[in-house]
Amino acid sequence: MVRDAVRGYWALASGLTDITRQKATAAARALVSQGEATAEQVGAIAEDLISTSLSNRAALLNIVRVEVDRARSAMGVATSSELDALTRRIAVLESQLAAVRDGAVAATAAQASAAQATAAQATAAKVTAAKVTAAKVTAAKHTGVAPRQTAAMPAEEPQATKAKRTAARKTAAKVAAATKKAATTEAAVKKAAAKKATPRVGS
Predict the structure, then answer these.
(1) Mean of the pLDDT values across residues 93-101?
(2) Where along the chain do its domains lie?
(3) What is the pTM of this model?
(4) Rounded distance between C-alpha atoms, residue 45 and residue 53, angstroms
(5) Four-CA torsion 109, 112, 118, 124, nearest 10 degrees
């Protein structure tokens, strides 16, 4: 019986299973009943069994973790620490990429604004040139029409000037008629004189 109680205690103390407080207390009381411990030691023995079980489980987990990491390394699989480092690196790269993308977007927007401003200036220059050309064409049209209108519609002469011109025309006509009449008379006189000067036949 003594061996069974001690054996049960060592089985729990060296085991890897999760020991509840109830099991630890029962094992401690079994030792007391067998004379291996006193009643005052029940609580301490139970706490010792629980802490020992937790330590054993933690040690086992560490061993398993080390072996798993070795297996991953041998297979070329990244460990959890390496995965964490890669995750942090990816986050940094993503933030840098976002900053570069934002800068590129801002630069593109600035270039687009500059291009729009240049296009607007070019359009304004073309419109101004078109207006100047239209003004020149209009001025040329006006300049070409004015002389034709002046030639087609001369200004009316004053009444006195028109009367003087009419009188001058009449005077010129009278002078021309008198000159023509004088020339005719002179020709007749010369003809008559020539007849008188010619001797008659048989006289």
Answers:
(1) 91
(2) 2-77, 80-152
(3) 0.32
(4) 12
(5) -100
